[in-house]
Structures are given as structure tokens and as C-alpha cells.
Amino acid sequence: MDRIIPIQSMQTQKIEKQFDKIIDLGYDNLVVGGCSFSYTNLGEVPTTWPYYFRDLAGFKDVFSCAMPGAGNNFISQSMVWGLETKKLSPETTMVVVMWSGHDREGSIFSSDAIDNDASYVYNYTDNVCHGTTGVPSRNGDGNTHWFGYRDIHKYKSLESRAVENAIWKIQLKRYLDASGYKSIFVNFLDPTVPNRTNNFDIVKFLPDTIKETYSSIMDQVQDPYSFSLKRMLISDDDLHPSPDGNLAWTREILIPYCKDGLYK
């Protein structure tokens, strides 16, 4: 059990600022959702974009729903749960969601379903956790005891995964809009750019009417992977942007996009 790193819903950390503010977007709270691309390790110097964005854009606090290995079902569910439980004011809160791989599985489980060898466990309550397959591998069960995750890929197609991922993203955007939150939706990587994941472009598998809706909710923001890859700012794992890559992406892509007021 000592290996497990618990992640609380809407996790906050007292992390000293590293950078001076270059713009004030007028929000106190930054709420983020995502996978390891958006996760900040507890008690460590930040190496991903959320706390860089906090410093550079004048936020006071970061509320994180990110978890390493997370899929998009988790991202959608954790954001709704977190915002409903924390009750942050839309007037003082911006939401940035960095969507993960379209081939990842995840669901909500009783806490006693979590494997003792799990690395990370996201807690909705004391007795309810999120179970995930983690990285897009077919060789294990992620962080749960449930053996169904070994075989679930046999019963899904690219078309079915495209439909479910589109639903998860659209429903979160509709929830945020209805609740009055300004938000930015960006993918963690462009699947058309060579990478070592099993991620794929879902748009080609969607009906035309859904393609139009899907395109309308996704912000035209370059993903941090392709940005960092072009600049040789990828970490040694050949996937995640390095700290310098995250910082450069925040400064050169995310901040200018916000400065131009293009988010919805």
C-alpha cells in the first residue's frame, strides 16, 4: 500500500511561484483536467504546464483533476464531480482541459477494487475511486483487480471509441457552458504526428453532424507534444514535453491564445 499515491478530487498544492506574471486574465482559480501531461507530482517542483500557467497568467490557485494514465471518460467525470463539490464561482474561474488518448479505458469503482500495487489512485470520496487501464497497454489491468480490462479492447472498435470519446467531450463542454465557466479544450498530442502511443484521430469515424459539433468545441490550440517535438524539447521517455517544453508551450501557445480572447 505504501506505493500508492492518492490523488484527491480538485487537488491543490502550496507551490511557490517560479515566474513573474506577464498577463492578468482576471481569474483567481485555474481548474485543470488531464492525464500525466497535466499532473503535478505532490511536493515536487512543477514540471508540467498548469503551475507555469498559474504564474504567467495571474491565477492565485490551481485546482487539479489530473491523473497519470487517465482516459477521457475519467477527465469528463472528474471535472464535473470536482466542480460540483468545490462550487467555485464561474466569474473567478477558468477551466483548461487537456484531453488524453482515445484508446484508454476507465470507470468508477469501489475503493476495495483497487490493486495494492497501483501507482496512482484518484479518490472521488473515501470509498469511491477511479479504476483505469493506465497507459494504452493490453498486458495488464491498470490499477484495479478487475480482469475485464484485459479483454475489453476485443469488444470495441475505432468507431465505438470515437463515439464514446466525442460524447465525453461534448457533454463536458455543454456542462461548462451551462454552468457559466469559460474553458479551453486542447488535445495532449496530435495523433497525425508520429508518437509512441496508440492514440488515433476520432474525427474520421464520426457522422458529419457530430464532426461539426466536435470541431466547434475544440479550441484551435497546438498540442504540447507536437510543439515540443519540433523544438526537441521532449523528455527522455520520448513522449512527455520536458519542463522547458511545457514552459515554452505555455508562453508561446497558451498565453497568446488567451491574450487574444479566443477561448469560449
Structure description:
- The protein is α/β, with parallel strands linked by helices and about 260 residues long.
- The protein has a single domain, classed as SGNH hydrolase (Rossmann fold), CATH 3.40.50.
- It is about 30% helix and about 15% strand.
- It has helices spanning about 50-55, 70-85, 150, 160-180, 210-215, 225-230, 245-260, and strands spanning about 5-10, 30-35, 60-65, 95-100, 105-110, 120-125, 130, 180-185.
- The strands form two sheets. The protein has a four-stranded mixed β-sheet, with helices on one face. A four-stranded parallel β-sheet has the order 3-2-4-8, with helices on both faces.
- Strand 2 (about 30-35), helix 1 (about 50-55) and strand 3 (about 60-65) form a beta-alpha-beta unit.
- Helix 4 (about 160-180) crosses helix 5.
- The longest helix has 22 residues, at about 160-180.
- It starts with a strand and ends in a 5-residue tail after the last helix.
- About 40% of the residues are buried.
- The model is unreliable at about 135-140 (pLDDT under 50).
Descriptors for this entry?
264 residues; four-stranded mixed β-sheet; 7 helices
What amount of the residues lies in strands?
A: 15-25%
CATH topology: Rossmann fold
Which strand order spans the largest sheet, edge to edge or round the barrel?
A: 1-6-7-5
For the record, the CATH architecture stands as 3-Layer(aba) Sandwich
- Look at the structure and give the mean pLDDT: 91
Quick summary of this structure?
The protein has 264 residues and is α/β, with parallel strands linked by helices. It has helices spanning 49-57, 72-86, 148-151, 158-179, 208-217, 224-230, 243-259, and strands at 5-8, 29-33, 61-64, 93-99, 106-110, 120-123, 128-132, 182-187.
